[in-house]
């Protein structure tokens, strides 16, 4: 049985998180993953690499991001104090940039002149295009055609940054199909291309290194809690698509047994309708997709299911393998927020705090609305505000019947 | 003896090379697959690779992606493949059949149930594209116990060290992927293939078969000069795609494409 303290020592040497994770890829990519793993393990504990990462975090991304006490909203909800970890204030507007800065340093080390990425909401695509522009690398971003449609603003941002956005028409035309296409590109151009994966999924070593780069969020939040609250928070909440912002916040708290953790998946029309993107909370079976074993929404024949969410960044049938393990051992409780609750939370935070969250992040806020009133005013919740809502204004306007 | 090993032993005695067609089961609809398999054998197929349709075929180019979509639209699933092979075996007990696909449908069914049903249906080997030997600790022995060969890929990017591991785990034949890319990619370089096969010959007695980028008789013959077998997929699946509305003419077209390859490969022996 995995103990909580074992969770800090994952994955094992072959990239397994208990029964999950691993490296399920076609043979052509094995060497590239070996190479990436070697580059990363060599650099991980190198003080010069760490200093370079820290420098970029401070002076390019603008870290540390504030931990903001949402006093008015907390009072309104009438329970625990809610603190927002302001990843929305990062350069490019989401936590995604923590990872792309890290992987860009690895890409530089690898000497490859071209980077590719998959993106759902476009935040990871923008963050990748941004680091590529800065390093003078060629950049192509795969994006499901349905997401290109609903995240037009980010598509144009990537274009301005000099990246090429390739709409993916196959399958369900969303994030999973973008990832398929990015993997196909990588197999073809593996000699000169570095694949910057945007979440804690994919084959080993990606789930590990994306987690490590995002763990800056949790390290800061832990220190800020001690400074500003005077103790650790009682609960953490983050939305879970692939799971990178959630792992980033949770990981540095994993041995703090008194800190409860909640991962909020996309409930879509409601888990009971089957139209959702919540593999953990809907008790999806185990499966293998995109290089790792995890919980995966699929039918009885093993075909991957269509997913549904108002938020492109959470519209994915799988979840990072480390979350699968954390579900099994019970360290994190996985819950859902459905589209309606998410929109309500989006509007409420905008009105009451003057902060417009990304629809992805609004999933975490929607659960805070449920959890806070069950707690006392002297208790504290840290919510990961993983990104800002500018990219979603069109979606919300459309629901309001407004056309531009 | 496993049918695959038997077939390669026979071919060796005859001084011939294996011709291995791939089609996606259930494409354009499940009721045609067994007929296509027989047609392929008539045109000179030595082994048949039967693709298991999957919603997310990450290693495949557009041609086989669309084949999967056509097959899935008709509800083709793994259990149907077992029935198809059973039916095929009623009149063909010698041509080896290898299932080729992705891991998730197999995981969903369960390794043991898969191995039992595959063996009972008369399947001879299994190639799981996204399962390298490192991840096959559990699956490999289960297949072996039911007499099913675990077939693995070797790529141009595979190091000699990894190739040795793969050779140690592989059975039936080694599938050498001729190029960096997805199925249906442009064309292979025969000299490049030859230079990669040479070190593999030192490592293993397994037959070395080459796939990806074989389009016609000329490329098939070129590869047959250096390999023990030639695997052809997209060139056949293209015929199915282009004539999906008139499936009755497809067997003849498959025979023409494969027959040309057979002829070109066998002509090598006569020169
Ligand atoms: C703002 C924001 N939050 C969350 C996510 C979901 O990703 P993850 O679960 O990896 O944090 C995305 C993905 O696009 C995003 O843009």
Automatic annotation (TrEMBL), chain B:
Transmembrane segments: none annotated. Its EC number is 4.2.1.20. Keywords: Amino-acid biosynthesis, Aromatic amino acid biosynthesis, Lyase, Tryptophan biosynthesis. It catalyses: (1S,2R)-1-C-(indol-3-yl)glycerol 3-phosphate + L-serine = D-glyceraldehyde 3-phosphate + L-tryptophan + H2O. It holds the Pfam family Trp_syntA. GO terms for molecular function: tryptophan synthase activity. The active site is at residues 49, 60. InterPro entries: Aldolase_TIM, RibuloseP-bd_barrel, Trp_synthase_alpha_AS, Trp_synthase_suA. The keyword Amino-acid biosynthesis applies. PROSITE patterns: TRP_SYNTHASE_ALPHA. Pathway: Amino-acid biosynthesis; L-tryptophan biosynthesis; L-tryptophan from chorismate: step 5/5. Gene3D superfamilies: Aldolase class I. GO terms for cellular component: cytosol. Tetramer of two alpha and two beta chains. This is Tryptophan synthase alpha chain. It comes from Vreelandella rituensis.
């Amino acid at each position: 049985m995995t103990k909580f303290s074992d969770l800090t020592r994952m994955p094992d040497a072959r990239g397994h998180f208990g029964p999950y994770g691993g490296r399920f890829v076609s043979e052509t990519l094995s060497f590239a993953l070996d190479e990436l793993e070697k580059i990363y393990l060599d650099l991980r504990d190198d003080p010069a690499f760490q200093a370079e990462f820290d420098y970029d975090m401070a002076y390019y991304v603008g870290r540390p991001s504030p931990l903001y006490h949402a006093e008015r909203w907390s009072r309104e909800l009438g329970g625990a104090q809610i603190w927002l970890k302001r990843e929305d204030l990062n350069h490019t507007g989401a936590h995604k940039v923590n990872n792309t800065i890290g992987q860009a340093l690895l890409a530089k080390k690898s000497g490859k002149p071209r980077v590719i990425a998959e993106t759902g909401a476009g935040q990871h695509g923008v963050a990748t295009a941004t680091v590529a522009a800065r390093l003078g690398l060629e950049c192509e971003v795969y994006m499901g055609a349905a997401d290109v449609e609903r995240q037009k603003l980010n598509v144009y941002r990537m274009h301005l940054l000099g990246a090429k956005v390739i709409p993916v028409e196959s399958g369900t035309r969303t994030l999973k199909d973008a990832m398929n296409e990015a993997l196909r590109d990588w197999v073809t151009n593996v000699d000169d291309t570095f694949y910057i994966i945007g979440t804690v999924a994919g084959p080993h070593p990606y789930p590990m290194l994306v987690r490590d780069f995002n763990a800056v969020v949790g390290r800061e939040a832990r220190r800020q809690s001690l400074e500003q609250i005077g103790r650790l928070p009682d609960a953490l909440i983050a939305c879970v698509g692939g799971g990178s912002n959630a792992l980033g916040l949770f990981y540095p708290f994993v041995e703090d047994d008194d800190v409860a953790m909640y991962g909020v998946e996309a409930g879509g029309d409601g888990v009971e309708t089957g139209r959702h993107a919540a593999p953990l909370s809907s008790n999806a079976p185990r499966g293998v997709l995109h290089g790792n074993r995890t919980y995966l929404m699929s039918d009885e024949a093993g075909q991957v299911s269509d997913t549904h969410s108002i938020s492109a960044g959470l519209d994915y049938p799988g979840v990072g393998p480390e979350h699968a393990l954390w579900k099994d051992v019970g360290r994190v409780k996985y819950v859902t927020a459905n589209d309606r609750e998410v929109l309500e939370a989006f509007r409420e935070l905008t009105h009451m705090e003057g902060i417009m969250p990304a629809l992805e992040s609004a999933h975490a806020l929607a659960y805070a609305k449920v959890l806070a009133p069950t707690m006392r005013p002297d208790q504290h919740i840290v919510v990961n505000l993983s990104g800002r809502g500018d990219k979603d204004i069109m979606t919300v306007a459309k629901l309001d019947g407004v056309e531009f | 003896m496993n049918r695959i090993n038997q077939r390669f032993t026979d071919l060796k005695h005859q001084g011939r090379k294996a011709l291995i067609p791939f089609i996606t089961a259930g494409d354009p609809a499940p009721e045609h697959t067994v007929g296509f398999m027989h047609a392929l054998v008539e045109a000179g197929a030595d082994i048949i690779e039967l693709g298991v349709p999957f919603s997310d075929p990450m290693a495949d180019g557009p041609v086989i992606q669309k084949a999967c979509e056509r097959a899935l639209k008709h509800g083709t699933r793994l259990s149907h493949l077992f029935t198809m092979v059973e039916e095929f075996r009623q009149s063909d007990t010698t041509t080896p059949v290898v299932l080729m696909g992705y891991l998730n449908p197999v995981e969903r069914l369960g390794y043991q149930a898969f191995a039992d049903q595959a063996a009972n249906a008369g399947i001879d080997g299994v190639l799981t594209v996204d399962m390298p030997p490192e991840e096959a600790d559990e699956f490999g022995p289960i297949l072996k116990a039911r007499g099913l060969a675990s077939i693995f890929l070797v790529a141009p990017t595979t190091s000699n060290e990894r190739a040795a591991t793969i050779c140690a785990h592989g059975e039936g034949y080694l599938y050498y992927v001729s190029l960096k890319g997805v199925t249906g990619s442009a064309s292979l370089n025969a000299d490049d293939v030859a230079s990669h096969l040479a070190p593999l010959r030192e490592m293993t007695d397994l037959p070395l078969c080459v796939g990806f980028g074989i389009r016609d008789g000329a490329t098939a013959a070129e590869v047959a000069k250096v390999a023990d077998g030639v695997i052809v997929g997209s060139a056949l699946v293209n015929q199915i795609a282009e004539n999906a509305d008139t499936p009755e003419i497809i067997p003849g077209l498959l025979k023409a494409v494969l027959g040309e390859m057979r002829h070109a490969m066998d002509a090598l022996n006569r020169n």
